[in-house]
Design brief:
globular, mainly beta, 46% strand, 3 helices, nine-stranded mixed beta sheet, 9 strands
């Protein structure tokens, strides 16, 4: 889509917002890679918004290249999640696709400390490998909150989730 106008699938309708997001589940030695934007009080999985006319796998590969400055082997779809939540006073309807990925072996791995930092669309992003077991994901406030449980036992086939969250 180089040179073309980029249109993210995210828009406001009255007091509500719709967002179409893709995210990566990158695992290494019992840890999952998380992303914190600026100084948010929560973290998320790496990824971002899908663009108009873009397949989710293409969107995820683009987001990984933009955010992590590397490539990824996108292995398989884990979840399609319809999330309904309120963020900063706005009712959000988000559809998210979550893929299991492999990062190159030379991508930095440091347990529970920042392993990579970058800027994307004017925001500072920091990435950290966090252990899946224990209370690490709750302690860092991984959103959406259902990921804490789902990452502990990944499904063998894609799961469709419909969630109404309270944050």
């Amino acid at each position: 889509m180089t040179g073309a106008t980029r249109t993210m699938i995210s828009f406001v309708v009255g007091p509500s917002k719709f967002n179409y997001r893709v995210a990566a589940v990158a695992l290494r030695e019992g840890h999952v890679l998380t992303c914190r934007e600026d100084d948010d009080d929560y973290v998320m999985l790496p990824g971002g918004r899908v663009e108009m006319g873009e397949a989710t796998t293409v969107a995820l590969a683009r987001e990984i290249a933009e955010e992590l400055h590397t490539t990824a082997d996108i292995r398989r779809l884990l979840f399609i999640a319809e999330n309904f939540f309120v963020h900063q006073g706005v009712s959000v309807h988000e559809i998210g696709t979550y893929y299991l990925i492999d990062l190159p072996s030379d991508f930095p791995f440091r347990r529970e400390e920042v392993c990579f930092e970058t800027e994307d669309e004017g925001h500072r992003l920091t990435f950290e490998w966090v252990p899946i077991e224990g209370d690490g994901l709750r302690r860092i406030n991984l959103l959406p909150p259902w990921l804490d449980e789902k990452l502990r036992a990944l499904p063998g086939a894609p799961e469709h989730l419909i969630l109404r969250e309270t944050r």
